Amino acid sequence: MDNRIYGYARVSSREQNEDRQLEALMKSGVPEQNIIIDKCSGKDTEREGYQYLKRQILREGDTLVIKELDRLSRNKTDIKRELEQFKEMGVRVKILDIPTTLTKFPAEQMWVMDMINSILIEVLGSIAENERNKIRLRQREGIEAAKKKNVRFGRPSKPMPDNWREVLAEVREGTKKPVEAIRELGISRSCYYRLFHKL
Question: In a 3-state reduction of DSSP, which class is residue 95?
Fold first, then answer.
């Protein structure tokens, strides 16, 4: 059976468009039906489409084409591990933004290609990881700035019944049990104890 060629594309969210990657993969010779797409973060490699491609589809002699190195992951250690595993599987990886991975070298020159690719992968992997760290830093800075403006995150807090002080005062006086107060107020145990200590 002929060796097969597959493509992998990834965008970080459902709102992003993968057309640019698909166009590049098909232009490089990947049949459209052989392209696997994930719409999730590149923080690690635990992505449904990618893992299915790697574990169920690719076999020795196949070629995997990706547009950019960080489509595999934005973690340098993950990138190097995945490329090493593909090498062990006998799967050739072509990365369109690393031209040396696209060229077939004679066997006696393979060490040259391996050396060049290792350097490029190290540099581009570091750039991808650094970009992810910058994104996370911007997210943290955005959250801190929002907190300073009293922007609340998460679900809106449930309004408390007007009589919560009276109900909790009855518990403090011993005329009502905590479980009765929780049921009457319709709140969680943690919320009850937080309010009780605030009273």
Answer: strand
